[in-house]
Predict the 3D structure of the following.
Amino acid sequence: MPTYHVEMFEGRTVEQKRRLAEEITRVSVEVLGGSPEAVEVLITDVKRENWATGGKLWCDQK
Amino acid sequence: MPTYHVEMFEGRTVEQKRRLAEEITRVSVEVLGGSPEAVEVLITDVKRENWATGGKLWCDQK
Amino acid sequence: MPTYHVEMFEGRTVEQKRRLAEEITRVSVEVLGGSPEAVEVLITDVKRENWATGGKLWCDQK
Amino acid sequence: MPTYHVEMFEGRTVEQKRRLAEEITRVSVEVLGGSPEAVEVLITDVKRENWATGGKLWCDQK
Amino acid sequence: MPTYHVEMFEGRTVEQKRRLAEEITRVSVEVLGGSPEAVEVLITDVKRENWATGGKLWCDQK
Amino acid sequence: MPTYHVEMFEGRTVEQKRRLAEEITRVSVEVLGGSPEAVEVLITDVKRENWATGGKLWCDQK
């Protein structure tokens, strides 16, 4: 702990995920204290057909 | 906000997801107020081997 | 199944939650089929200090 | 209810998922009471590139 | 990993939570392997007004 | 999107939550692109009796 669940559109590179995990862990320790080893980051790649904002699926948005 | 996470068996059509997102957003605004643009709907397609009820996986149920 | 997790600002009345659960269940069955008894709705009341959009906590927003 | 969400590395067999669902349902009823039919278990298979501990993605760890 | 999120009605004792965490961890290691130290169990106490099945809030059910 | 759900022990100050939301939003935009306004951060304050690691509740750990 703490645990971070990240939901984002699918299609990001492993390198982006690598950097995101590093940065979230760094700022987590910086702000909340604790050790980096206790920080978990879980990423969910979400298809655009599975995410709607304002009632519209993102696969239908330009 | 509000945010709706929907877990359902995989296999639904994009059209069903489209209608579900529209309807959830509509009833959300109707009951809770706020604007449609603030409503997020995230859908998770769950495999039947990943969902158990009463201790039985749904891929094992008739 | 399906299961709906709803995250919304704390402060809604039980009556609003009652109506929201009814409406989500109704539109779920209407769009996805299945029986109402299989539909679960779980609500999370979120404090404004625990929700940020655009980097700002909602307890800090007018 | 209760509902159990399990996040684990992808790659487990259906047989492991079958046993896990059975065992979680059994211990749930044993400890919390209630009927097995009310217990839901949902499994998420997580790619190693989507899980980081200590700031490192598991796909980068030996 | 794995991580178990448990949603259950509020009102369970700390002793029940203690036993549930022990048992889930035990069966997790038994079925999936891995070490107990890697297993996380997070419990959410859900008010009956925040959980609906079949469109009815559990605070309204006998 | 993206959406960040943070689970952490209860007891953090609003100021820590404020800084955490700012920092997560900043690194999210920096690594993934997109606009800050699209980034949502939701925090869950978890009681130590509701979080177990290695089968032990954190309220039982020194």
